[in-house]
Amino acid sequence: MKKTFFASLVVLFLVGLLFGNSYLVSAQTEEDIQHVESLLQNGHFDQAYVFSKEKCEALKPSDSAYLDAVAIFFQVATYYEQHLRMLEDFNKGLEVNRELLDLIHKYKKSFNQEFANQEYFIYRNLVVCYTGLGKYSDAQKYRQMLYKAEKKKKLPCEYELCHYFNFDFFKVDTLNVWGYEWYDPLPKDRFSSSFTKIVYYVYSTDASGNDKDQLYRLHVIMFHGTQQPFDYIMDKHITTENGEISGSMYAYTYKEDIDFKKLHDDVLEIVKESKQSDSRRFIPN
């Protein structure tokens, strides 16, 4: 899905958000924020991360500015982690995400619910990182945490996390490929409706490597039938000015308990080799 990194510092806003609207940032913190904002605006995510981390480490928990520094570091580390995933630096991404989780567990009571909710976004990030590293059993652990939270209605709907989540990201030459998964289970009645469990979005990129135009989507859809040894089949979708072109790819099928390694490898093959669908349907606007 299309992703944008806001270089201008929403950190100041989020510091207030984490503490509540009545919170006032100290003068020293405002100077730090201006410096971090300058680093982020110029794309120096790693330097902003190191600077804000060192600010935390230089203070004691008893210092009045300590929680200010924690809030700033948390948001800067969040931006840095996003940047790392876009670079496919999943090992460093894991390190930063674990750091973010530790901060949440340690300071959950010091901030408001918005801060606590970030734990679920970190679960999502960990799924992406472990998937990118080919550690599918580790990714599954955090995927299950998201499903449990969704079942208990605990997931925030910010960025639609309560409906679906990003679980895979990789680049193929100049293309960005994003995999998204929906929580809904496979319907028992295969003929009740159409059903999509997973969508991979394939984007062209600009000179900076950011998403530019959506080229097509790969849908893992329910197979309407029960006599085959699979439950899902891959569908390719292309949106045009006049309507939607779609078609099934019969070489790519999946059981209800999806093998995510196979799925990742299949999508990589389809994108790399520009594979076309075996059938063609057109739905006009």
Summarize the structure.
The chain is an alpha+beta fold and about 280 residues long. The protein is about 45% helix and about 20% strand. It has a seven-stranded antiparallel sheet with strand order 1-2-3-4-5-6-7.
Question: Could you characterize what this model shows?
Answer:
The chain is α+β, with helices and mostly antiparallel strands and 285 residues long. It contains eight helices and seven strands. It has two domains: 11-155, Tetratricopeptide repeat domain (Serine Threonine Protein Phosphatase 5, Tetratricopeptide repeat, Alpha Horseshoe); 164-284, no CATH class. The chain has a seven-stranded antiparallel β-sheet. A hairpin with a 3-residue loop joins β5 (232-239) and β6 (243-254). α2 (27-41) packs antiparallel against α3. The radius of gyration is 21 Å and the shape is elongated.
List the helices and strands and how they pair.
Layout: H1 11-19, H2 27-41, H3 45-57, H4 66-86, H5 90-107, H6 113-132, H7 136-151, E1 164-172, E2 175-182, E3 196-205, E4 211-222, E5 232-239, E6 243-254, H8 260-272, E7 281-284
Antiparallel strand pairs: 1-2, 2-3, 3-4, 4-5, 5-6, 6-7
Helix pairs in contact: 1-4, 2-3, 3-4, 4-5, 5-6, 6-7
